[in-house]
Amino acid sequence: YSYCYIGVLQCFFCWVMFFQVPGLYDIWQEKGTGPYHTAADKQAVLSGKTIYYWTLVLGQIAAAVSTTTERQSLLTYCFPNTMLNIAFAGEVALGLVSIYCGFMHGPF
Fold first, then answer.
1. Which residues does 108 contact at the CB level (< 8 Å), separation at least 6?
2. DSSP for the chain, written as a single string
3. What pLDDT does 1 receive?
4. 48 Cβ partners below 8 Å, 6+ apart?
5. Is the pLDDT higher at 51 or at 99?
6. pLDDT per residue over 38-50, tens digit each?
7. Using N-to-C axis directions, what is the helix angle for 39-68 and 24-31, rounded to 10°?
8. Which of 20, 62, 86, 104 is the most exposed place for a label (fewest CB within 10 A)?
9. Is the CB of residue 21 less than 8 Å from the CB of residue 47?
10. Share above pLDDT 90 across residues of the chain, in percent, rounded to a whole number
């Protein structure tokens, strides 16, 4: 049942963070989804997309961590699940590759 509200919370916080980019809310109100003609507008939208994506990635990791232990502090739990830790590292690595490597821009 938690998947219903966790997904809604992730979506909400992704959009909140998206609109934290300075000037992006004004751009969104004036031009909607585009086209964006100025370099500053394009950069603001690109920054917003990046922040949205990273908020989603970190939200997914937080959701996974929160389901690994119910009553024990993460400070004493210390992430003993090696496969889950590898998945976390892979998710962060894929996030970095998808942002900084041009061949990944098409799919995303």
1. 53, 98
2. -HHHHHHHHHHHHHHHHHTTSTTHHHHHHHHTT----SHHHHHHHHHHHHHHHHHHHHHHHHHHHHHH-SSS-HHHH----HHHHHHHHHHHHHHHHHHH-GGGTTT-
3. 55
4. 18, 19, 21, 24
5. 51
6. 999 999 998 999 9
7. 110
8. 86
9. yes
10. 42
